[in-house]
Write a structure and sequence with these properties.
Layout lengths: L1 H17 L9 H43 L3 H23 L9 H10 L6 H11 L2 H13 L8 H12 L3 H9 L2 H14 L6 H10 L10 H10 L5 H15 L6 H4 L5 H5 L9 H44 L1
Helix pairs in contact: 1-2, 3-12, 4-5, 6-7, 7-8, 8-15, 9-11, 9-15, 11-12
């Protein structure tokens, strides 16, 4: 305590001695004396800090070092790494134009990331996804489609037959059948939302027009209505956004690019008879994955509707209770 008081007194004295004199009558000897006094005070301050404050800081630093050494930060770093990976992974899938955004499988994700660790290897990724999407995987996907109450019952046999065609290697058949159902599945989702009063207002439609760069008058057309459904999603926005970009830029575009046609099934070009090279396993599998993304969107919209209904019910109960009170 005495050292601290002495330190404070010395600092005050230092401040006083270092002030520039307001008069011109200060002599050179007086200035030298002030400088000498100031240097002495500084020495006292440094000595005090070294003896007390610095010792305390060093002791605290040693205790922190011991604490850090005793903590295993591996789980924390691992969680941070896992939080970063999806950004990297989704960006990679967008560049490779493979619509597997919604397949939540750590092994698949790691295989794709590893294959592209040094350079983006499109061929390696293609083979990884082909291997992953086995008949068992597709069977589970088909079962999920058939369980989706949002999808029209009359539409499900078409989807199942398209899946069968894919498994038998009839890729022209599977791809064309599925591309003809894209807007059909989208209409099932839109009808569900509209039936339950789940719609966006004009300001949100303006946002859809601006964000997706489509004409305002086209927002309520087929493509625009589908994009509206994606905007309504309330979780996993980064994934749904990537899905929306893939649908808009690849599946629903009218590009004349033969490079794009070589790997992507363009709905408009196939249905109008322009694109004729879609009889490959890659085209067919991407068509399947596209339909699956839409069906997962249907599940999400249905989930949102159920949440809204529960919220309205809760609000109604609270209002009734307030009236009783």
């Amino acid at each position: 305590m005495s050292n601290q008081i002495n330190c404070e007194n010395d600092l005050e004295k230092l401040q006083e001695n270092l002030q520039v004199s307001d008069t011109a009558e200060s002599s050179f000897s007086t200035q030298l004396q002030q400088l000498a006094d100031a240097m002495q005070i500084i020495n006292n301050v440094v000595s005090t800090i070294q003896s007390d404050a610095m010792k305390a800081v060093i002791d605290l630093g040693n205790r922190i070092a011991e604490l850090v050494a005793s903590v295993d930060f591996t789980p924390i770093l691992k969680k941070f790494s896992e939080a970063i990976i999806p950004f990297q992974y989704i960006g990679l899938l967008e560049r490779l134009k493979w619509p597997v955004f919604l397949i939540d499988d750590d092994a698949l994700r790691q295989d794709i990331l590893t294959a592209c660790a040094e350079r983006e290897d499109e061929e390696a990724v293609r083979e990884i996804i082909f291997s992953y999407c086995s008949d068992d995987f597709l069977k589970a996907m088909e079962d999920d489609w058939n369980s989706c109450e949002v999808i029209s019952a009359e539409r499900k046999p078409i989807l199942s037959e398209a899946m069968l065609m894919h498994k038998q290697g009839h890729y022209y058949a599977s791809t064309s059948m599925l591309m003809c159902q894209v807007y059909g599945v989208a209409s099932d989702i839109v009808n569900l939302a509209k039936k339950n009063g789940l719609e966006i207002d004009d300001d949100e439609k303006d946002f859809v027009s601006e964000y997706f760069e489509i004409k305002r008058e086209d927002v309520d057309k087929e493509k625009g209505r589908l994009l509206q459904m994606i905007v309504m999603t309330e979780s996993g926005m980064m994934l749904w956004n990537a899905m929306a970009k893939y649908l808009q830029s690849e599946i629903l575009c009218s590009s004349e690019s033969k490079k794009r046609w070589a790997t992507q099934p363009l709905r408009n070009k196939i249905c109008h008879g322009d694109q004729l090279n879609f009889g490959t396993k890659e085209h067919s599998l991407k068509a399947i994955l596209t339909i699956d993304m839409l069906i997962q969107l249907a599940y999400e919209i249905k989930r949102i509707i159920e949440i809204h209904k529960e919220h309205e019910t809760t609000e109604g109960i609270c209002t009734d209770e307030q009236q009783v009170d």
